[in-house]
Amino acid sequence: MRRSVFYILFFLACLLCQNAEAKVKQKPVYMFGFAISFTDSVGYMTDVQYLDSTYVDTKTKFLIARNMYSVQLQQYLQKNEGCKHPVTSVFFGTKKEKVEKKRQSVRQRYEKYKDYTVKTVDCVFTPEAYYGQEATAEAPSGKSTEKKSKKSSKQ
User: Residue 75, Cβ neighbours under 10 Å: how many?
Assistant: First the structure.
């Protein structure tokens, strides 16, 4: 009797753990980027943009590959605006009104200081692909192929 109750509880615990896994869903979002360089007094801000093919983690509500959107803005500023070392951030949400409100509050936060000017830039974000954990686990790394080629050349 005790053993069967233990097996049933163990089975239920396994089912609960399996369902607790976070899921990644493709979801449209609104986003804007902000960058500032501490070597000069200019802040850079993009317009609010609609991206329909982004991926969001349903458990944490974080945008997947959000660092890549910051890198896109950083590369745009380095190439087109001559900003050498910008510190970039990306803000996003599912409702345009909330994202617009956040954009206004970020702009006002930096415009209240007379030392900073906030400039609007035309950086357009491109959606980042999501490959999931399965694809990254199967992808071969370059190091393992190098080791194999070194071994085969020695023989």
Answer: 13
In this predicted model, what pLDDT tens digit does every residue of 89-120 receive, in sequence order?
A: 999 999 999 999 999 999 999 888 878 889 99
The torsion angle over the Cα atoms of residues 100, 45, 129 and 132, rounded to 10 degrees, is -70
Sole residue written with tokens 């071969």: 140
Model confidence, pTM: 0.68
Residue 26: DSSP 8-state: E
User: How does the average pLDDT of the chain come out, rounded?
Assistant: 79
Beta bridge partners of 34: 45, 89
Would strands 42-46 and 117-121 be described as parallel, antiparallel, or unpaired?
Answer: parallel
Which pair of structure tokens corresponds to residue 151? 């071994």
Question: For tokens 């345009």, what's the residue?
Answer: 96
Q: How far is CA 150 from the centre of its chain?
A: 37
Q: What burial class does residue 73 get, using C-beta atoms within 10 Å of its C-beta: 0-12 exposed, 13-18 middle, 19+ buried?
A: buried
For residue 146, the tally of other CB atoms under 10 A from its CB is: 10
Alpha helices in 32-155 (DSSP H): 66-76, 96-111, 132-138, 142-154
